[in-house]
Design brief:
With about 110 residues, the chain is α+β, with helices and mostly antiparallel strands. Helix content is about 40%, strand content about 35%.
Length: about 110
Amino acid sequence: MSLAGLTIQEAHALDPSEVAQRLEEFAQDMVNNKFADWGVQIEREEHTLTLRGRRDAGTHFEARVEPVTGEVKVLLTGAVELGRLKVTLAGGADGVRRRVGDEIARTLREHLT
């Protein structure tokens, strides 16, 4: 099931240097805790972070983390391969996308507040 087009936005009132530091902490949290078994790599390009990870044959993602004035946007692409039971328990494809988005938003919010 595709994650393409999933966008998370979190507002903040931090100065740019503080945002950069907190986004680095967010990225490290994603690598070391939230998605530790995905082999996530971080690429840094000016103010933007890109996280890429892969697990199993068909499960992969890319998260582009972009700070803009007053908010941070996370743009997701990739796909999650789950068994029918897990998809059903999550509430279908929309439920899976919502859960992935909620987990990333919650982690981002923790680092921005």
